[in-house]
C-alpha cells in the first residue's frame, strides 16, 4: 500500500517547507538554503510530524535536525576524493587542530573545504552550453571553547556557493498548437532552450542568463551550561542557540522546453534570518520526571523579484515584494 506524505520542491521565498530543516538547532527557512551538503554530520535526528513541541517552528511534516561534527580533542586530517561519469569530481578536506590550553580552559578548531563539479546531463542547442551541471564550493570553520568542565561554547561559520547550469525542461505535449516543432516524445540530451539569449532580444526570445547562482552563509553560536543539581532538580542545564543565516538565490527557469519565451522565469530572491532560542532542561523525583522548556524568537526579512515572460513574450511582468516576519514562542514538555 502506498504511503502519502507532505513535501515541497518549490524554492519560492514566501513559503516554508512542511518539513522543518535544522542545522545544530538553527532553522533553515527555505529549500534553496539547504544546498549545504558539505557539512559532515555527526548524526541526523528525525522527528515525525506534526511537530511544534520540541522545535519552535510548526512543521506539519515533522522536523530533521542535522548535528554537525564538533572540533575534536586531538589533531586530525581527513581527505576524500570521488570521481564519476559526466566528469564528476568531488573533494573534501577536514582539519582538526586539537585542544590548545588558554588562560581559561581549552579551545579547539575544525576547518572543512568541499568542492563538487559535474558536467551537464544535456546540451542547449540554442547556445551550445551544458544543462543541469553541478558546481558547488563550500567551507566551514568551527571553534569549541571550554572555559570550564560545565560550560561549552561552540561557534560555526559556513558558506556555500552554487554556480550551475539550470535543469533540463523537455516539452512532450503541445496543447496550444503553436509549439509542435519542439515536442519530443522520448528523452533527449540535446534540446533547444532560451537560456543565455539576451533578455533585450525582441520577443519571443531570451531569458538572459544561463546559470543558477545560490549563495548561502550562516553564523551559529551555542552556549551549553550544565548546572547539575539545583534545589530539588537534578541534571539541570541551560542552552542558548543564536543563529543568523543569509541566502541569495538567482534562478533562471525555462518551463516550456523551447527557445521561445512561452513560459520563462528569472527569479531573484534574498532572505535574512535571525534566531535566538533558550532551552531549560532538568529532572526531578530521582530522575523519574524530566522536563524541557524553550523560549524562541525568530525574525526573517525576504525580498523576491520574478521577471517572467509568457505566450511568445506578449505578456511580460516583474512582480516584486518584500516580507518581514517575526515569531515568538514559549513551549515545553514533561515526561
Can you give a write-up of this model?
Helices cover 0% and strands 58% of the residues. The chain starts with 19 loop residues before the first strand and ends with a strand. The chain has strands at residues 20-23, 26-28, 41-48, 62-68, 76-84, 88-96, 100-101, 106-118, 122-124, 130-131, 134-148, 151-164, 190-191, 212-230, 233-254, 263-284, 289-310, 315-317, 320-334. The chain has no helices and 19 strands. The strands form three sheets. Strands 5, 6, 7, 8, 11, 12, 14, 15, 16, 17, 18 and 19 form a twelve-stranded antiparallel β-sheet that branches. Strand 7 (100-101) and strand 8 (106-118) form a beta hairpin. The chain has 335 residues and is mainly β. The protein has one domain: TonB-dependent receptor, beta-barrel domain (Maltoporin, Chain A). The mean pLDDT is 81.
List the helices and strands and how they pair.
Elements: E1 20-23, E2 26-28, E3 41-48, E4 62-68, E5 76-84, E6 88-96, E7 100-101, E8 106-118, E9 122-124, E10 130-131, E11 134-148, E12 151-164, E13 190-191, E14 212-230, E15 233-254, E16 263-284, E17 289-310, E18 315-317, E19 320-334
In total, how many domains does the architecture comprise?
1
Task: Quote the distance from N terminus to C terminus.
Answer: 35 Å
How many strands? 19
Strand content: over 45%
Oligomer: single chain
Helical proportion?
under 10%
CATH class categorisation: Mainly Beta
CATH topology, what is it called?
Maltoporin, Chain A
Q: Runs with pLDDT <50, length 5+?
A: none
Compute the number of helices.
Answer: 0
* Overall average residue pLDDT: 81
Amino acid at each position: 500500500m502506498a504511503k502519502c506524505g507532505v513535501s515541497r520542491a518549490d524554492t519560492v521565498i514566501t513559503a516554508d517547507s512542511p518539513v522543518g530543516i535544522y542545522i545544530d538547532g538553527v532553522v533553515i527557512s527555505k529549500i534553496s538554503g539547504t544546498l549545504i551538503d558539505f557539512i559532515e554530520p555527526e548524526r541526523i535526528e528525525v522527528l515525525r510530524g506534526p511537530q511544534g513541541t520540541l522545535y519552535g517552528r510548526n512543521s506539519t511534516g515533522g522536523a530533521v535536525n542535522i548535528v554537525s561534527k564538533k572540533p575534536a580533542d586531538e589533531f586530525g586530517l581527513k581527505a576524500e576524493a570521488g570521481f564519476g561519469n559526466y566528469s564528476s569530481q568531488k573533494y573534501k578536506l577536514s582539519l582538526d587542530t586539537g585542544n590548545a590550553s588558554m588562560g581559561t580552559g581549552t579551545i579547539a578548531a575544525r576547518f572543512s573545504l568541499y568542492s563538487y563539479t559535474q558536467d551537464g546531463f544535456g546540451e542547449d542547442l540554442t547556445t551550445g552550453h551544458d544543462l543541469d551541471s553541478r558546481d558547488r564550493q563550500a567551507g566551514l570553520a568551527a571553534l569549541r571553547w571550554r572555559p570550564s568542565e560545565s560550560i561549552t561554547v561552540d561557534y560555526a561559520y559556513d558558506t556555500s556557493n552554487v554556480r550551475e547550469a539550470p535543469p533540463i525542461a523537455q516539452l512532450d505535449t503541445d496543447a496550444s498548437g503553436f509549439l509542435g516543432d519542439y515536442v519530443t516524445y522520448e528523452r533527449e540530451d540535446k534540446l533547444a532552450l532560451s537560456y543565455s539569449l539576451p533578455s533585450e532580444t525582441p520577443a519571443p526570445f531570451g531569458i538572459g542568463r544561463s546559470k543558477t547562482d545560490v549563495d548561502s552563509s550562516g553564523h551559529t553560536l551555542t552556549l551549553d551550561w550544565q548546572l547539575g543539581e539545583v534545589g530539588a532538580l537534578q541534571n539541570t542545564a541551560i542552552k542558548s542557540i543564536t543563529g543568523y543565516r543569509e541566502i541569495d538565490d538567482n534562478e533562471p527557469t525555462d518551463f516550456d522546453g523551447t527557445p521561445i519565451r512561452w513560459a520563462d522565469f528569472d527569479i531573484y530572491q534574498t532572505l535574512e534570518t535571525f534566531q535566538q532560542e533558550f532551552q531549560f532542561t532538568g529532572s526531578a523525583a530521582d530522575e523519574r520526571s524530566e522536563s524541557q522548556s524553550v523560549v524562541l524568537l525568530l525574525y526573517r526579512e525576504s525580498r523576491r523579484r520574478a521577471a517572467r515572460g509568457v505566450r511568445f513574450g506578449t505578456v511580460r511582468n516583474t512582480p516584486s515584494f518584500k516580507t518581514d516576519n517575526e515569531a515568538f514562542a514559549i513551549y515545553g514538555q514533561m515526561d
